[in-house]
Amino acid sequence: MIDAINASLFTPIGEDGLIGIYLILNGLKVTLIVTFFAMIMGSILGVTTTLMKMSPKWYLRWPANLYVSVIRGTPVVVQLVILYFIVLAAFDVDKITAAIIAFGLNSGAYISEIIRAGIQAVDKGQMEAARSLGLSHGATMKEVILPQAIKNILPSLGNEFIVLLKETAVIGFIGGVDLMRAGEIIRSRTFEDSVPLFTCALIYLLLTYSFTLLLSKFETRLKQSD
Amino acid sequence: MIKINNLHKSFGDNQVLKGIDEQINHGEVVSVIGPSGSGKSTFLRCINLLEQPTQGDILIDGQSITAPDACIDKLRQKVGMVFQNFNLFPHKTVKQNITLAPVQLKLMTPKEADVEAEALLEQVGLKDKADAYPSSLSGGQKQRVAIARALAMKPELMLFDEPTSALDPEMVGDVLDVMKSLAHKGMTMVIVTHEMGFARDVSDRVIFMDGGVIVENSEPEALFSAPKEARTQAFLSKVLR
After folding, report:
1. Domain span at A133
2. Domains in chain A: how many in total?
3. Domain assignments of chain B as residue spans, ordered by start
4. Which of A83, A213, B16, B124 could be disulfide-bonded to B144 (CB atoms 3.0-4.6 Å)?
């Protein structure tokens, strides 16, 4: 067991002198960078898409609906590969940037659905009460609907973050070396299966679990103001 | 002050209002009674355009509110509405519920609105609840806050949509008392209600609706003691026992 750990993580695993644990840590860095920036891009896209979907103008609603349908209806790995090898092929875009764009596009669709659901979960009497006082639609959204919707949105948004983090494990499909691909490289070079794979799994688990803890703490605080 | 001509409202194939003609004068208190599904709430909600009429016209102070260029937000500032389910804003305190609209619409400074809110809370008997959140109030207290919130806009007309239907019986009296004192102060009010005693005591006029039309429309004494229409008689014999 200790030998296996040493062999796959702490001794050079090829003629280039590569050491497993460095590969893993670099992979982890890629995973975190892609997740973080994809989440930011996804949030911006998500808000924009929600606004477009709720617009009375069909030429705003229509593309937003198409975008969400296409993204939700196809696997993220297919989107990633198409984006990198076809859409971005003509541009000089590195793999990490391509991954950020692909996962950001993917996440944006889901986040827009989360925001929409959060807004729709606010009792419709709230809109009626505010409008009947003479407040405009915009002022009602800002003062009455969104502050309540945010309580529905934040927990799901945290969940989306966890899903996104795990989904980035397919970056290897375009040749990017994320956490998962790092494990695979070690596995193929050392013929040692358990140590690299369980190391990856453990790191994913630690990341998502600590984030879940943080999230539930946050949710308890949100509930206190009720 | 309100004139309603040939008002129709359908939801899809379901025709709820089938031609309502009605006029409500300044300072008048009108109760609307009738069986559920008779269209009385829809009628009330059309008056401040929470429901868009399918046909017909509503004039407030001579201005058509259904005209395409009518400014709905301005109109609604003049028309207060109280809902069956209160619809207080749960993330705001009682006082913030009351001051939100006048401050947002720049009718009052935050300070003026604060003073006004306190006066209104005193009027509805809830001065000590100014900084409480709605979730800590009873139903009757919530409804009195909702009335204060509507009054903060200094409306010319108040609409009440079954204001006591969601209340525990012992809470009903407090809310009705507040409404009664409003009526005595000369507020123009349209009240959809199941409180027959209240309708009889406070209203200047009672409208009985059934099947999307006004069946009978007269002074409360006449309508309750000597209803002319068979449908009115049948309804009253059921609710008055």
Report:
1. 26-177+198-224
2. 1
3. 2-240
4. B124
Residues A205-218: tens digit of each pLDDT: 999 999 999 888 88
Contact across the interface for B79 and A132, Cβ inside 8 Å: yes
Does A90 fall in a domain? yes
* DSSP-assigned letters across all residues of chain A: -HHHHIIIIISB-STT--BHHHHHHHHHHHHHHHHHHHHHHHHHHHHHHHHHHT-S-HHHHHHHHHHHHHHHHS-HHHHHHHIIIIITTTS---HHHHHHHHHHHHHHHHHHHHHHHHHHTS-HHHHHHHHHTT--HHHHIIIIIHHHHHHHHHHHHHHHHHHHHHHGGGGGGGT---HHHHHHHHHHHH---HHHHHHHHHHHHHHHHHHHHHHHHHHHHHHHT-
Cβ distance of A133 and B101 shorter than 8 Å: yes
Is residue A15 domain-resident? no
> Where does B2-240 sit in CATH, by number?
3.40.50.300
Residue A33, min C-alpha distance to chain B (Å): 36
Look at residue A49 and tell me if it is in a domain. yes
Mark which residues 100-119 of B lie under 8 Å from A by CB.
100-101, 104-105
Q: Which residues on chain B are in Cβ contact (under 8 Å) with A134?
A: 73-74, 76-77, 101, 105, 153
pLDDT at A10: 86
Residue A191: inside a domain, yes or no?
A: no
